[in-house]
Amino acid sequence: MIATTPKPPYYAVIFSSEVNQELEGYKEMSQQMVDLVKTQPGYLGHESAREELGITVSYWDSLDSIKKWKAVSEHLQAQKFGREKWYRAYKTRICLVERDYGFDSGLF
Amino acid sequence: MIATTPKPPYYAVIFSSEVNQELEGYKEMSQQMVDLVKTQPGYLGHESAREELGITVSYWDSLDSIKKWKAVSEHLQAQKFGREKWYRAYKTRICLVERDYGFDSGLF
What we know:
The structure is a homodimer. In chain A, about 30% of the residues lie in helices and about 40% in strands. The first copy, chain A, has about 110 residues and is an alpha+beta fold. Chain A has one domain (about 20-95): 2-Layer Sandwich (Alpha-Beta Plaits), CATH 3.30.70.100. A four-stranded antiparallel sheet of chain A has the order 2-3-1-4. In chain A, helix 1 (about 25-35) packs antiparallel against helix 3 (about 75-85). The interface of A and B includes residues 14, 88, 90, 101 and 105 of A. Strand 4 (about 85-105) of chain A pairs antiparallel with strand 4 (about 85-105) of chain B.
């Protein structure tokens, strides 16, 4: 689902990743992180899709909230596993959303 | 592939979309737009993935380049078809990338 976010400005973290073939434990950890991120102060929503490349965008009220989420202990452990086991490569981009606009057919 | 982008600041356009079941012509038009966007002044790269939700992030050197790409005639036509035929909903977010960091296992 497209995330429902407030009027800009707000922040986005674009996390792009390429995974290894061996992904033991990855799906479970991903779900744990999804459950956990939703409880974080300043979290506004997230969107995710994966084909060859995975893209997860999370939305935040401030840089401070992003920084605190990065330092949550379970998340630090997930980041460590990610580097050691699952990700072949990743890139994180911290962005200020300056403007947004959209379209909704109203049929759902 | 993760896009190779210059040192921040630069811009990102996050395009999140939900498509209809009937997608005649969509794949061809998407490929045309990928070919076309790569030729645009100020284009730095893009990343794309789709499951239920589609996320395409394109990277740009300036707001002016983003504005000009939005107004390219073939792209305007694609946007029109998108609203009329293919997309159930979409959201476009214009962002300033303030910081980025990454990891590459070096195995590829």
